[in-house]
Amino acid sequence: MDQSKEQRILNSVSYNAVKGDPESVLDCIDKYCSQKEWAMNVGDEKGLILDNVVKEADPTTALELGTYCGYSAIRIARLLKPKAHLFSIEFNPEFVPIAKEIIEIAGLSDKVTILEGHAQDIIPQLKSKYDVDTLDFVFLDHWKERYAPDTILLEECGLLRKGSILLADNIIYPGAPEFLEYIRNHKRFECTNYPSHLEYMKVEDAMEKAVYLG
Ligand SMILES: Cc1ncccc1-c1cc(O)c2nc[nH]c(=O)c2c1
Ligand SMILES: [Mg+2]
């Protein structure tokens, strides 16, 4: 059976990255995906926007929708303060073990819990099953059609508090028009747009930050 692209990314990280060094894992993935095989990691350019918003949020509890190979989980977790934690939801069973391994190589397994399944099934369990109170930061990077319904679900489950910061990837490409419509017309969100480019490409993309006003 041929290896998957994600397995090849893991092979490259395992061979080239410095164990326990998140920056070297990120650099290795960015190098591989810009030189060898494109993959849908948030990447280095949008990754800097993600870094800045995570630093602004300085979250105690963070949630990511869409783990993929763990690249953005590493970007987020490497900036978390000692007691802080990131929950990352991934529905593709092939990606979960690869992300776990890459996060382990980065030395961040203690700060990240990967939850396998669909966000709409796991979000309602975060309080009861995972002892989450409210979320300080949420990164939406799973499937554009789910950005709006899952944002509504987070609010309905009482997981957002005054000042919770949401950041969404791929606002332009592949695009999330329903989410933009929803979040920009919803009076309880304060939105900011960050123009950028699709990972590893010269194609236009953007990220949208939305602060929950309570
Ligand atoms: C896969 C793809 N092909 C061409 C252009 C863009 C994409 C693309 C890029 C991303 O950053 C994505 N992030 C989360 N989820 C996605 O499905 C996704 C898809
Ligand atoms: Mg993305």
Question: Which key terms come to mind for this protein?
Answer:
single chain, binds magnesium ion, about 45% helix, alpha/beta, binds 6-(2-methylpyridin-3-yl)-8-oxidanyl-3~{H}-quinazolin-4-one, 10 helices
How many angstroms separate the termini? Answer: 51 Å
Shape, per Cα inertia axes: globular
Count of strand segments: 7
Helicity, as a percent range:
40-55%
Strand content: 15-25%
Which segments are poorly predicted (pLDDT under 50) over 5 or more consecutive residues?
none
Structural class of the helix and strand makeup? alpha/beta
**Tally of contiguous helical segments:** 10
* Mean residue pLDDT: 98
Kindly report the spatial arrangement of strands forming the biggest sheet: 3-2-1-4-5-7-6
Order of SSEs, N→C? Answer: HHHEHEHEHHEHEHHEE
The profile of the biggest β sheet is: 7 strands, mixed
The small molecules bound here are: 6-(2-methylpyridin-3-yl)-8-oxidanyl-3~{H}-quinazolin-4-one, magnesium ion
Radius of gyration over C-alpha positions, nearest whole angstrom: 16 Å
